[in-house]
Fold this sequence. Notes:
binds adenosine-5'-diphosphate, ParA family protein, P-loop_NTPase, seven-stranded mixed beta sheet, binds magnesium ion, about 15% strand, Rossmann fold
Amino acid sequence: SAPKPDRAKPRVIAFANQKGGVGKTTTAINLATAIAAESRVLLFDLDPQGNASTGLGVERTARGAGTYALMVEDRPLADVLRPTPVPNLTLVPADGDLAGAEVELVGLDDREKRLRHILAGEGMPPCDYVFLDCPPSLGLLTLNALAAADGVLVPLQTEFFALEGVSQITKTIERVRRFINPGLALEGIVLTMYDRRNNLSELVAQDVRGFFKDKVFETVIPRNIRLSEAPSHGLPVSLYDPRSPGAVAYAALAAEFRQREKARRS
Ligand code: ADP
Ligand code: MG
């Protein structure tokens, strides 16, 4: 269907968890892709590793200017927008210098609100959602994302000690809410790399649901090899293997996400 008409302000969702390898980037790419079927999405790659950029077909050598140029050098947003293989999904890639941003941002004015100001600025293209793929740390890049976001989506690997890992990010959300961005909400928790053959996965899921209740998405993302193969082809899983369990799961997650968005608006 055709994209909806302009809304005044896009919804900004940060994908954050200080742990690496939990499915932040995989969830950002594949949820963005599914949402882009009905809405315009702008995805910012805030991780110096640039996995969201590679995973959407923007090779390391072809990245040019991206989130570093934008946030540290004040480059206009229009200069750093890249099309992706997905219609309605635009990428701001991670540039090679982004690793330096953690240090360089320290010396800049309003260092934790650079991104927030950019998203509120004149240069924003019309879009419905802004997705922010965060690095695996709680440094200034993640802080910029949390300061700019309406909601945080926390991917959680379904493994032992899952709950212990999540307390760090929830405390950080609490602090950001208190000192920088009172509007920030925990949008939800997504259980990733779920293994149906392993009882432990079910126990961990019950544990997380017991603690975070309906903040946890009903949809769980299974461990699926297609999800790990797709990025090396520069494609979201739905374009790489649309019938794979991973593609089916992210489509279900997107349906649930939309449902929640609708409920939130009414
Ligand atoms: P993060 O962004 O949190 O570091 P990624 O999304 O990059 O995590 O995932 C880490 C690794 O695990 C990547 O190689 C990715 O392809 C793979 N991966 C992510 N989710 C799944 C899954 N559900 N099943 C199998 N592999 C996955
Ligand atoms: Mg990542």
